[in-house]
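User: Could you write out the 3D structure of this protein bound to acetyl coenzyme *A? I've included everything you need below.
Assistant: Certainly. Input first, then the structure.
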Amino acid sequence: MIRAQVRGIGHYLPERVVPNDWFTSFLDTSNEWIVSRSGIERRHFAAEGQTTSDLAIRAARAALDDAGLVADDIDSIILATSTPDLTFPATATIVQAGLGMTRGFAFDVQAVCAGFVFALANANAMIQSGQAKRILVIGAETFSRIMNWEDRGTCVLFGDGAGALILEAAEGDGTVEDRGILATDLNSDGRYRDILQVSGGVSSSQTTGHLMMAGKEVFRHAVDKLAQTTLAVMEKAGVTAEDIDRVVPHQANIRIITGTARKLGLPMDKIVVTVQDHGNTSAASIPLAMSVAKAEGQLRPGQLVVTEAIGGGLAWGAVLLRW
Ligand code: ACO
């Protein structure tokens, strides 16, 4: 049985680090409020002119270096973003050109904060069906470009960054001992599209728009739906919470992360947490967290890892893999 195995990982964060105190110069807020409600202490913002593809290319190069590969060893790029450089072409093709990759195919996936999980599931399906042998799966965002700086309930929560993971086809036995992706679960429910959305777009207002969020409503859905999708992948693979070595959750908010862990009966020492340093980087948050965790020795070959995310749509899902 063909499995999509992790071959390499890397990330890039823009140089500018913005601590919570920065917001107090123009908003009625405080470090204490932001930390207590979200767990966020700082985030990175892209420099003027720095685009999502710029961040993605740097993360992709780091992943290629980690894997000992060059761009032309890759068959496909799947890039998850809600903040593309342009309306079209896909940011993935800009990354393809930026890496000097002259073969294969590249496209974007848009599932907001769940984008990386959706991209991983797509990459897994393409590898299992034989369409590609090596896929660069990227999550890259510049959410600072869509903030309403007068809305203290949202602009303090997000950051910019990129992470990239290389998946490679490998033969497995078809058991949960195989390395690679073991189960995926994707969901969306467009009835809830209004509670987290950007107020502009090509065919509606011809403007970029700003992020708007009914925070309490999103929170209300998050823990239940994240627990449900995490249980779904565990059930599909026939494993239990005790078997899980590491959880890499979407890094939106420490209260959602701890609430979901508690609901699943998973101790916090199994949970990778980077939200304090990155804020919510939407589709980039999971590969960023994975890359940091790997560098710190928290993610090691052979570990059973589950990753889960929820975001605008609502869209949510999970992937279970053996690292
Ligand atoms: N500083 C100080 N006060 C603030 C701030 C701020 N930055 N933002 C809001 N407040 C105020 C509000 O105005 C409100 O004041 P009021 O009571 O006088 O009206 C008070 O704080 C409480 O506001 P709430 O919105 O009720 O605060 P809550 O405890 O719900 O926390 C938060 C807000 C952090 C947004 C929370 O609802 C949340 O975490 N929601 C989930 C959001 C999230 O993580 N989304 C991302 C997941 S999906 C994705 O990744 C895209």
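Helices lie at 31-38, 52-67, 91-99, 115-128, 215-237, 254-264, 275-278, 285-295.
User: Perfect, thank you.
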